[in-house]
Fold this protein.
Amino acid sequence: MHHELIHYTEVSSTNLLLKELCRQGAPEGCVILADRQTEGRGRLGRSFFSPEGGLYFSLLLRPASLDFSATLLTTAAAVAMAESIDALFPGETPTAVKWVNDLYRSGKKVCGILAEGMTDGQTSAIILGLGVNLCPPPEGFPEELRDKAGALYPALSPDELATLRLSLCQAFLSRFDRLFEALPDTAFMERYRKRMFLTGRQVSYVKAGLRHFVTVLGVDDDGGLLIEEKGQKNKLTAGEVSLEL
Ligand code: BTN
C-alpha cells in the first residue's frame, strides 16, 4: 500500500481530520500524523490525552469487502504496533496486549487504538487511529491517568521525539500492511495471543448495567474474547473488560 504522510504540529484529532479527507476522496494508505491533539478521541466516547511527547496518527483503509470481522483490523494493528515498539524500544518486558487493543509496558498503558467506520452509501472506509506515549509530558500525566498511563521513555529531546515518531510510524505501517494485505488470513492471531495477558485471569465487564465476573479462556481467530461465566462458555465481540485481582 502506498502511504502519503501528512504531518501537523497540532490538530484537533487525526481521526477527525482524516475523516474529512476521506469524504473528499483521499486514497487508501493516506496517513495523518500529529505531534499533539487538542481533542484526541478514545474508545467508547472517551477523550484521549494527547500532549507533546506522543505519536498520534491515523491511517485510511478502504477494504474492498469486509469478509472478515472488523475487530481483526484492530487486533492486526495491535500486533503490528507491539512488534514495532519492541523492535525500536527493547525493554525489560515485551509489550503486552489487553483485549481488545490496548498495549501495555510494565503494567502501564502506552498505546491506544481506535478504528472508526465511515460509509457514504456506496463505499466504506475505516479510519484506524493510534496514539503512543513515547515520553511523559514535562508536567507528568494528569492525576486521573497517573496510575494507568505509562510511556516508552522517561524523557526525550525534541529532536529525538521527532525522529522516533517517524520511525515508529513507518515501522508500524510496513508491518501492518503485510497483515492487512493477507486478510482474511488470521495466522497473525497467534502472535496476538502470545502477548495477551488476560488469558486465565479473572475479569469483569458490564452489560445492561450489570457487572459480570468471568474467567478469560483466550481469543478466537475473529478477535472475540472467549470467557467462562459460572461454568458456561461465552464470547465477547466488543466492549471492555477490567482485570479483577
Ligand atoms: C483508546 O485507548 O481509547 C483509543 C485511543 C486512540 C487514540 C488515537 S490518537 C490518534 C487517533 N486520533 C484520535 O483522535 N484518536 C486516535
Observations:
- The first helix runs from residue 14 to 23.
- Residues 13-15, 37, 40-43, 46, 48, 50, 56-58, 102, 112-114, 129-131 surround biotin (CB under 6 Å).
- The longest strand covers residues 108-119.
